[in-house]
Automatic annotation (TrEMBL):
Protein name per UniProt: Gamma carbonic anhydrase family protein
CDD domains for this protein: LbH_paaY_like (cd04745)
Any Pfam family the entry gives: Hexapep
Listed PANTHER family: DYNACTIN SUBUNIT P25, GAMMA CARBONIC ANHYDRASE-LIKE 1, MITOCHONDRIAL-RELATED
Length: 198
């Protein structure tokens, strides 16, 4: 659902996919090939939210900020299921893990990986290419070329997902029995450990 607020109407590129069960409100700008999953709330009611090309904001994420602030997700940012970004700026090709919380005026450098369930306190600045985990969050090491290659490959799947959703996502009535010819889904992306073994 897309809502205007105090004269601000969200701007959404035609190639982006906003799930009908997501809510995008007010001063929000969404770029090319962006995926926004069901249950996501992107609230540009008190300030501007810019989501650059190729980002994804997955199911049940919240993006919001204090009045008069703005926030930006740079190109290829990958926001995992249930994450809360409150007034933080996210660098290019960053992975924010599931159920992480990033507080106000946080600055995440390019190509960082934020672990699942991390809590990053207000005004924290994380340099480029760092792996950050924990509550409170701490930098534990640099992100390797291998790790960022794995992350980039996963984000590429989400960059294709809007087109797939436009082509095949439909509201339907459920089947009552499993068909004998039900296909098996392909395993086309692996965990980081499986990726390392290839």
């Amino acid at each position: 659902m897309i809502y205007s607020f105090k004269g601000f109407i969200p701007v959404v590129h035609e190639s982006a996919f906003i799930h009908p069960q997501a809510a995008v409100t007010g001063n929000v700008i969404i770029g090319k090939d962006v995926y926004v999953g069901p249950g996501a709330a992107i609230r540009g009611d008190w300030g501007e939210i810019v989501i650059e090309d190729g980002c994804n904001v997955q199911e049940n994420c919240t993006l919001h900020m204090f009045p008069g602030k703005s926030m930006r997700l740079k190109e290829g940012a990958h926001i995992g299921h249930g994450a809360i970004i409150h007034g933080a700026n996210i660098g290019r090709n960053v992975l924010v893990g599931m159920n992480s919380v990033l507080m106000d005026d946080v600055e995440i450098g390019d190509e960082c990986i934020i672990g699942a369930l991390a809590f990053i306190k207000a005004e924290t600045v994380i340099p480029d290419r760092k792996l950050v985990v924990g509550n409170p969050a701490k930098i534990i090491k640099d992100v390797s070329d291998e790790m960022i290659a794995w992350k980039t490959k996963g984000t590429a799947l989400y960059q294709k997902l809007p087109k797939d959703c436009y082509g095949s996502l439909r509201a339907v009535e459920p089947l009552r029995e499993i068909p004998e010819d039900r296909p098996t889904q392909e395993a086309f992306y692996k965990t980081l450990e499986e990726f390392r073994k290839k």
